[in-house]
C-alpha cells in the first residue's frame, strides 16, 4: 500500500481521503511517485480522491459559486496532469517536467526581473508584538481614509522611525529591500468580515511618509517592498490594480507581496476555483505592464507558470514560517515541502527565525518554532526561491551575528543544483552553485530524529581548493530543549572531501564553500577527510 507524504502531516497510508497535489507517495517496494498538474490557466485546481476500491485516483475540481467545475470556450486546453516516478527520491526533486509543460516566457524583456534578499516589518506583527492597524477599531469611522484625527494604538509597526531602523539594518548588512506591512489604511476592520471594499492600496497611515521613506531607502542603497492585502476581495483589488501599480512606479517599488486572507469575494468563489485562478494571473500580467514582480500569498499552489510569467517571482501557497507563530509546523515539515509545494515553483517560505520562543516577542503567544538555528540556515538552500527573506527581528540577529553571516553570504540565484541525499519526511540535503561565481552552498534539513548526514563534495571543481564554513547543530542541540546551540567551523575542502555531520532533532546544517586562489588562505585550516 503506498504511503502519502503531505505537508504538515506524518507519513499516511493512502485511504479514501481527498488530497491536494503535488501528492508525494512511496510504495512498499521503494518506488517514489509524485502526482501534480502543470500550466493551470483558466481552469479549476485539481484535487485527488481514491475510488471505493482504493485503486484509482479520480480528479476533483474546485467548484465555483454555482457548483460548476469550469467554464471553457473553444479553442482552449486543460492543464497537464503530471506523474514523476523513480526509485531515487533525488530524481523527483530534480525533475523539470512541471516547468517544461508550461509555455515559453511571455515577456521579451526580462532585465527588470531580479532576485531579492530582504528583511521586513512583518515578524513582529505575526508574533503579536506589534500591530498592522494604526488605531483601535472604536476610534475610527469605518470606511474612512482620513486618519489624522484617529487615536493611535501605540503598537503600529509601520511607522517612520521604525521603518528607518529596518532600512539602516538592511543597508549595513547588504540586503536589497525592506518589506513593510500595515502601511496603508484599512487594517482596523479587515479580517473575516466578507467586506467587498476594505483597502484602496494607495492611502498611507499618518505615521508612514511614503515619499520620505522611499527617498531615505534610496539614499541608503535599499528599496522598499510593497504589500497589498486584499482580504480575499479579488474584485476590489482588480478595481485598484492600475492605481496601486502606478503608485509603486512613482516611488520606485519593483516588487509586491500580495495577500488573499479570508473567503474570496465574490462570495461563494474559492481560492482554488477558476475565478480566483484567473484573477491571480490577471494581477501578474497587469504587474508586468508596470515592470513589477509579484509574490502572492494565500494564492493557488503553483503549477510552473513562473516559467511563462517570470515576474511571478515566488508564492507562499503552503504553510510558511508564519505558522511557527500560530502554534508551530510539524518538525518534519521542511523535509516534505520540496517534494510537494516546491514541485510547482519557488516558495517564499521566509526562513531565518533565530528566536524559537515566540513568547519573547509576545508573552501572550506561547507558540514555539520547531527548529534549530542551524536548520534555519540550511533552509536558504533547501527551500528554493529567488526571493528570500531574513524573517526575524534585527535585534535578534544582533545577538547571533556569527550565524547571521551565512544569511548575508548565501546566494539566491543558482547555476547548478545537486541533491546529495533525500528521503521525503525524513531529511533533504542540497548543494547549489551560486550564479556567476565558483562558490557553492550546502543546506540540510532534518526531521524529529537525530541522524548523521554523510555527503561527498565531488560536485566541486577538481584541482581547486575551497574554504568550507560549516554552520551546524552543537552537541546536545534539540529543536525544543536546546535550539540555539550551534557551532561554526572552517576547513579546507576539495572535490575529494567527505563529511559526516550530526543533525539534531529538528536540526540541520549549512555550508558555504568559497573558492580560494591563494593557498596561504587555507594553509592553517584542517582538511575535511
Model description:
This protein has 529 residues and is α/β, with parallel strands linked by helices. The protein has 3 domains: 3-100, no CATH class; 116-413, TIM Barrel (Alpha-Beta Barrel); 420-521, Golgi alpha-mannosidase II (Immunoglobulin-like), CATH 2.60.40. 18% of the residues lie in helices and 25% in strands. The protein has 10 helices and 23 strands. The strands form 5 sheets. It has a 7-stranded parallel sheet. Strands 16-17-18-23-20-21 form a 6-stranded antiparallel sheet. Strands 2-1-4-5-8 form a 5-stranded antiparallel sheet. Helix 6 (234-251) runs parallel beside helix 7 (274-289) and helix 8 runs parallel beside helix 10 (401-409). The mean pLDDT is 94.
The structural domain count equals 3
CATH topology (level 3) name of the largest domain: TIM Barrel
> Number of helical segments?
10
CATH class of the largest domain: Alpha Beta
Q: Superfamily at the CATH H level of the largest domain?
A: Aldolase class I
CATH architecture of the largest domain: Alpha-Beta Barrel
Q: What's the number of extended β-strand segments?
A: 23
What would you call the shape? globular
Uncertain parts: none
Structural class: alpha/beta
What composes the largest sheet?
7 strands, parallel
Estimate what percentage of residues fall within beta strands.
15-25%
Amino acid at each position: 500500500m503506498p504511503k502519502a507524504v503531505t505537508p504538515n502531516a506524518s507519513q499516511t497510508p493512502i485511504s479514501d481521503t481527498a488530497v491536494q497535489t503535488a501528492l508525494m507517495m512511496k510504495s512498499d517496494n521503494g518506488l517514489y511517485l509524485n502526482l501534480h498538474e502543470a500550466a493551470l490557466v483558466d481552469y479549476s485546481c485539481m484535487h485527488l480522491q481514491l475510488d471505493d476500491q482504493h485503486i484509482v485516483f479520480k480528479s476533483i475540481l474546485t467548484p465555483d459559486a454555482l457548483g460548476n467545475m469550469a467554464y471553457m470556450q473553444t479553442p482552449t486546453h486543460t492543464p497537464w496532469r503530471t506523474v514523476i516516478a523513480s526509485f531515487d527520491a533525488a530524481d523527483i526533486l530534480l525533475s523539470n517536467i512541471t516547468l517544461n509543460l508550461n509555455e515559453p516566457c511571455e515577456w521579451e524583456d526580462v532585465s527588470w526581473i531580479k532576485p531579492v534578499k530582504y528583511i521586513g516589518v512583518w515578524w513582529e506583527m505575526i508574533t503579536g508584538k506589534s500591530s498592522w492597524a494604526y488605531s483601535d477599531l472604536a476610534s475610527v469611522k469605518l470606511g474612512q481614509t482620513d486618519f489624522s484625527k484617529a487615536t493611535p494604538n501605540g503598537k503600529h509597526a509601520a511607522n517612520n522611525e521604525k521603518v528607518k531602523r529596518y532600512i539602516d539594518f538592511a543597508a549595513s548588512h547588504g540586503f536589497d529591500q525592506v518589506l513593510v506591512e500595515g502601511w496603508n489604511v484599512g487594517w482596523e476592520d479587515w479580517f473575516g468580515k466578507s467586506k467587498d471594499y476594505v483597502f484602496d492600496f494607495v492611502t498611507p497611515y499618518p505615521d508612514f511618509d511614503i515619499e520620505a521613506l522611499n527617498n531615505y531607502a534610496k539614499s541608503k542603497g535599499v528599496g522598499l517592498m510593497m504589500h497589498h492585502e486584499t482580504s480575499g476581495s479579488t474584485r476590489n483589488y482588480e478595481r485598484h490594480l492600475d492605481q496601486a501599480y502606478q503608485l509603486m512606479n512613482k516611488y520606485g517599488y519593483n516588487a509586491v507581496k500580495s495577500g488573499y486572507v479570508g473567503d474570496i469575494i465574490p462570495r461563494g468563489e474559492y481560492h482554488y476555483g477558476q475565478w480566483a485562478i484567473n484573477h491571480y494571473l490577471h494581477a501578474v500580467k497587469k504587474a508586468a505592464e508596470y515592470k513589477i514582480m509579484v509574490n502572492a500569498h494565500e494564492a493557488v499552489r503553483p503549477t510552473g507558470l513562473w516559467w511563462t510569467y517570470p515576474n511571478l517571482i515566488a508564492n507562499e501557497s503552503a504553510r510558511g514560517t508564519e505558522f511557527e507563530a500560530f502554534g508551530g509546523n510539524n518538525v518534519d515539515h521542511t523535509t516534505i515541502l520540496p517534494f510537494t509545494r516546491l514541485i510547482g515553483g519557488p516558495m517564499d517560505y521566509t526562513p531565518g527565525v533565530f528566536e524559537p520562543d515566540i513568547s519573547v516577542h509576545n508573552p501572550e503567544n506561547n507558540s514555539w518554532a520547531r527548529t534549530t538555528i542551524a536548520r534555519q540556515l540550511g533552509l536558504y538552500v533547501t527551500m528554493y526561491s529567488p526571493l528570500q527573506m531574513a524573517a526575524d527581528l534585527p535585534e535578534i540577529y544582533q545577538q547571533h551575528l556569527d550565524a547571521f553571516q551565512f544569511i548575508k553570504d548565501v546566494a539566491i540565484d543558482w547555476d547548478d543544483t545537486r541533491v546529495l541525499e533525500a528521503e521525503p519526511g525524513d531529511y533533504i540535503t542540497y548543494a547549489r552553485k551560486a550564479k556567476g561565481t565558483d562558490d557553492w552552498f550546502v543546506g540540510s534539513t532534518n526531521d524529529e530524529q537525530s541522524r548523521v548526514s554523510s555527503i561527498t563534495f565531488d560536485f566541486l571543481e577538481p584541482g581547486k581548493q575551497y574554504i568550507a564554513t560549516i554552520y551546524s547543530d552543537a552537541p546536545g542541540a534539540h529543536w525544543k530543549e536546546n535550539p540555539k546551540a550551534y557551532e561554526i567551523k572552517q576547513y579546507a575542502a576539495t572535490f575529494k572531501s567527505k563529511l559526516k555531520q550530526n543533525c539534531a532533532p529538528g536540526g540541520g546544517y549549512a555550508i558555504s564553500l568559497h573558492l580560494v586562489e591563494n593557498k596561504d588562505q587555507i594553509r592553517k585550516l584542517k582538511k575535511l577527510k
